Amino acid sequence: MRINRVIAAAAASLIAATGLVACSSETETTSSSNGDAVTVKIGTTDADQKAWSVFADEAQKAGIDLDIVRFSEYPQVNPAQSEGQIEISKFQTINYQAQYNATSGKDLRIIGSGEINVLGLYWKDHDSIDGIEGEEVAIPNDPSNQGRAINVLVQAGLLTLRDGAPTLTPTPADIDKDASKVKVVAVDASQTPNAYNEGRPAIINNNWLQRAGIDPSTSVAADDPNSELAEPYINVFTVSGDDLDNQTYEKLVDVWQSPEVTAALDEDSNGTAVQVQRSKEELNEILDRLVEEYK
């Protein structure tokens, strides 16, 4: 199944219409308690994307001025949040947040969901997985993508996991080779487009798809955003536990899910981003399950 088919099928149920590198306010408005706009300090690694510009505009219409704190690397953001340098963040998946909570002993929480970026299997000059049996598939070797890549192949019926293997965070060692139709080789994510160009099947994440100029619609298989196996890869809004019921932050989640931001997100991702609407209770249940796996 191609990514564009997966997105079309998922859209009906999912789409809604350590330190700082730089800290700069996108507006000059300050917080107010008399009905004027309220300023929220939000951290992200994606501030240069069109979706964030639209997000800031739409938030302002809703009475919220975003003070966007720009980070250059993922590992900087959660510690800044834990130390109170930002109020809320939007940059990470549930899986990434779970790893941070498990290793740091912190308990950052999720106040709402954003999008999931569909991950696909690509095979040059093929439009299906027919004939792929016996092939060696290149997958990213980083912890954030390796387990998910394996699960893409599990969902496609190409890999079988050993009994007792972790369902959400499998590694190559968890694969039942005798029961599987393909083999995997874990490589640096930057090398997956090279494998594709050499004629080998490869799981390629969206950043490297764009850099390599590979059309996302040409995938021969992809994960299903509705699947439980994809849940760890939902991008989320993160807050401290004390702010879990903050109505202003909940309003920001609604703004992100707006048609205007969704359209910009679709443009940024070349059509691979699908908005997900899940309750904060569901999202935090997923988070807690993953934290236990990582401990």
TrEMBL record:
SUPFAM superfamilies xrefs? Periplasmic binding protein-like II
Signal peptide feature range: 1-22
Q: What are its GO cellular component terms?
A: membrane
* Main subcellular location: membrane
Protein topology in the membrane: Lipid-anchor
Which keywords appear in this protein's UniProt record, sorted alphabetically?
Lipoprotein, Membrane, Palmitate, Signal
Q: Which domain of life is it from?
A: Bacteria
- Entries under PROSITE patterns matching the protein: PROKAR_LIPOPROTEIN
Compartments, record wording:
Membrane
Q: Which family does it belong to?
A: Belongs to the NlpA lipoprotein family.
Protein name per the record: Methionine ABC transporter substrate-binding protein
**Protein source organism:** Corynebacterium wankanglinii
